[in-house]
């Protein structure tokens, strides 16, 4: 984790990002009957050298945001500015150049590495698309350097993925993400498939690489406890939107959105006494389908505080009026008409 350089121009600026997948009926004559609103209006910035954690339950749109950031998918609407330039409008050579700078590290180290390719070929694969990044005769040396950087023996270059543990495979995935020397890494649940003991090692590796290579991270997870130790800021997503965002201490110690409070009430607390004192908030019902998003506040069908106003009015992601006058840690954006500060996790 490095201190945020919030005063400089953001390296990434995401505005009004939307991804709707059409729902169709019929085989020959396809008729659109609705849409899966996977991402439904997301705004955030990422400063150089900063880590933004994006957290939310399964299906809330995290991976869809990640794929759009890396230009693997085009948004339905909205813009993604990389150093001021809207990458959603680029094509051809300009798009290729930007793609090099924003690389993805995937969730599952068991399925994201081709089992028939050697580790050397996997890590060096990005050089096939961007040969300018490494001259042909120099590739093997570069790949071995990358293995060393992620804490693996450079002699492993001719081995296959099945010869490695889950943690080692994720290191291979990270080495591949670094091959083109990107400025931004979008890590989509990079430790979710790993044992708890290995998770910490991979997170420490990512933190070390961040300062070594001056990287900016978007770090996605479904569990708030995982992003805490690496994020400068956190954005909490629900059903395709960000519902609360702030610096990590603001979110963990001064959450004001009921959904964030519910998520926090489920994070593991190591101290047994503190665990006893903690209030558990159990959300009723399932997450609504992204094809049928509730009116007003999209969280209202599961919110214990919901009132008539929540059915009618969409809450904006802004500093709630009650906290606006104060400049304390509760004064951060929260999309709730009735935002209230509530400490859920005991102080560390
Ligand atoms: N290509 C697609 N076509 C239709 N719907 C899609 C497509 N990709 C994703 N979705 C839907 O969009 C929603 C968001 O999916 P996404 O994978 O972004 O969620 P997620 O937050 O990454 O979830 P998880 O934690 O399970 O990885 C889900 O309802 C998913 O089913
Ligand atoms: S706006 Fe209403 S329904 Fe939505 S989180 Fe706040 S209290 Fe709950
Ligand atoms: Mg996902």
TrEMBL record:
<dbReference type="Pfam" id="PF08352">
    <property type="entry name" value="oligo_HPY"/>
</dbReference>
<comment type="similarity">
    <text>Belongs to the ABC transporter superfamily.</text>
</comment>
<keyword id="KW-0067">ATP-binding</keyword>
<dbReference type="InterPro" id="IPR050319">
    <property type="entry name" value="ABC_transp_ATP-bind"/>
</dbReference>
<dbReference type="InterPro" id="IPR003593">
    <property type="entry name" value="AAA+_ATPase"/>
</dbReference>
<dbReference type="InterPro" id="IPR017871">
    <property type="entry name" value="ABC_transporter-like_CS"/>
</dbReference>
<dbReference type="InterPro" id="IPR003439">
    <property type="entry name" value="ABC_transporter-like_ATP-bd"/>
</dbReference>
<dbReference type="Pfam" id="PF00005">
    <property type="entry name" value="ABC_tran"/>
</dbReference>
<dbReference type="InterPro" id="IPR013563">
    <property type="entry name" value="Oligopep_ABC_C"/>
</dbReference>
<dbReference type="GO" id="GO:0005524">
    <property type="term" value="F:ATP binding"/>
</dbReference>
<keyword id="KW-0547">Nucleotide-binding</keyword>
<protein>
    <submittedName>
        <fullName>Peptide ABC transporter ATP-binding protein</fullName>
    </submittedName>
</protein>
<feature type="domain" description="ABC transporter">
    <location>
        <begin position="12"/>
        <end position="264"/>
    </location>
</feature>
<keyword id="KW-0813">Transport</keyword>
<dbReference type="InterPro" id="IPR027417">
    <property type="entry name" value="P-loop_NTPase"/>
</dbReference>
